[in-house]
Amino acid sequence: MSFRLTILGTSSALPTSDRYPTAHVLNVHERLFLIDCGEGTQMQMRRYRIRFGKINHIFISHLHGDHFFGLYPLLSSFNLMGRKSPLNIYAPAPFEEMLARHLKDFDIKLGFELITHGLSGRSMKLILDDKRVQVFSFPLKHRVKTFGYLFREKEKERKIIKECVTRHKLSISEIALLKSGADIVRESGEVIINAEMTTLPPPGVSYAFCSDTAFFPKLASYVAGVNMLYHEATFGDDHETLARQTGHSTARHAAVVAREAGAGRLLLGHFSARYKSPVQLEEEARQVFPASEAAREGETYDI
Amino acid sequence: MSFRLTILGTSSALPTSDRYPTAHVLNVHERLFLIDCGEGTQMQMRRYRIRFGKINHIFISHLHGDHFFGLYPLLSSFNLMGRKSPLNIYAPAPFEEMLARHLKDFDIKLGFELITHGLSGRSMKLILDDKRVQVFSFPLKHRVKTFGYLFREKEKERKIIKECVTRHKLSISEIALLKSGADIVRESGEVIINAEMTTLPPPGVSYAFCSDTAFFPKLASYVAGVNMLYHEATFGDDHETLARQTGHSTARHAAVVAREAGAGRLLLGHFSARYKSPVQLEEEARQVFPASEAAREGETYDI
């Protein structure tokens, strides 16, 4: 049972000698979700042993190159590796026509199905609902249409109190019913009350991804109560004006969002090349929200 | 005075954990020529300390992604680094319209002039002629229109025989005339014969780049007498049929071209991911042309 995040890149648009552009891999019970796909993502996936075949969903925040220049080479590699299973791509609409045109330009004929999901709208939307996880998109505020993503593990089953199994001689089907939350009425008329047999399931964990965005108060409501918030922090306090001008955030902005949202932890990234080390950004965020840290490439975070 | 080649990538279309796709940097007396630009080229340039500002000419062999997916991110980085000087790009025509369209799709507004040179034709052509070097394009034989490139250092000046300077009391302007190949007629009527005062200049060195291509006999004539030949060697003898089917060469094919061309040395690259090490390819090439070696990433070769 896992819900963990691997960071493949922490740079903003201009990569540095030790920072790749944005790409995250979220592992939810061995389903791998790739979030943004900057140049070199597939090299980073190889370096950090991310299994290509386990990725069936790719989420692109927006169509600036540092968030998706790695997509075409990755699709090409999937192809060369003989992929057959369908691949879902989520990105701001209308990217589907552009994607098809570029694949033709690049002479890439995919041997697998590409299922495109063009995102639009100005509210939070459920875009993926599978057995274990729900994914929502929500609007960010950047120079081009940009979306954040919220990954929420589905609520687990209720937990059976062990001694009840023997005391009431519960059958396997009765246990399944109780786990799903139902009471049981036996043929004898005996009623077994769920609340006496089970305890609340552990809450599903959640991860939100916000890149790139200017600060706006409503953002905190989209990511309220999230266990881990990733938020871009392109600049520090020293370049707050530049942040506003370019549709980006400072580390302090990110921390305000985390605090307002009641997030568990804050992970910072998308650092401008002008910061040799993200220590300053980390410190500025911690002044507002102590559980802040700068993302490190190749690191895996258990959420 | 330098004429040296740095290898940034040796993989074919599918990169591996230790091989990047094709990109070469040729340094001719501190003019840097970038040849092909696969994904991650700018990361490799940083890793191997290639100076971005010294690149004014980029040569793309063909529009398959593993040879140019790194171009857009590189252009974007040039832009973010504040580049102002014009940049020349050479690639099979008509790539100019596609390039302009993609830059628009990717929201990249360049702050410097892009000078595009669309290549066409079925013969060798002089495409760049500057003070120190001439560059020629020539057709290769691949699944899409593809060009090889030949870089030829211009012939240097003749060398003055030292003792002649004092014996004939040569003035500075007379020395310059002799170096350029002229005879001298002094006001006294004395004639100074160039051939008696000078020796032949050292020949200009040359480098040829051939990727990707199927074997064809005429190729050797395009690269005749080249000091160093780079030739793709995607496959070994074990996959000669696959090489023919995909428009690629075996290491042995590359070596035949080098031998027929009378090349000084042969550098192999563009290795299929199926070869964990290129040792087999190197050995097969050496059976035909002993001065063969597998290119190594990050290595600089003096030519």
Could you characterize the architecture of this molecule?
2 copies of one chain form a homodimer. With 303 residues, the first copy, chain A, is of the alpha/beta class. Chain A folds into 2 domains: 3-156 and 202-302, Ribonuclease Z/Hydroxyacylglutathione hydrolase-like (Metallo-beta-lactamase, Chain A); 159-199, no CATH class. Chain A is built from 10 helices and 18 strands. Chain A has helices at 41-47, 71-80, 96-105, 162-167, 172-180, 194-197, 219-222, 240-246, 251-261, 279-288; strands at 3-9, 23-28, 31-35, 55-59, 87-92, 114-119, 125-129, 133-139, 147-153, 159-160, 184-185, 191-192, 198-199, 206-210, 228-232, 265-269, 292-294, 300-302. In chain A, the strands form 4 sheets. Chain A has a 7-stranded mixed β-sheet. In chain A, α9 (251-261) packs parallel to α10 (279-288). Chain A is globular and about 70 Å long. The mean pLDDT of chain A is 95. Chain A binds chain B through residues 13-17, 20-21, 39-40, 42-43, 46-47, 63-66, 69-70, 72-73, 76-77, 80-81, 98, 102, 105-108, 143-144, 273, and chain B through 13-17, 20-21, 39-40, 42-43, 46-47, 63-66, 69-70, 72-73, 76-77, 80-81, 98, 102, 105-108, 143-144, 273.
Which characteristics define this entry?
303 residues, 2 domains, Metallo-beta-lactamase, Chain A, homodimer, 7-stranded mixed β-sheet
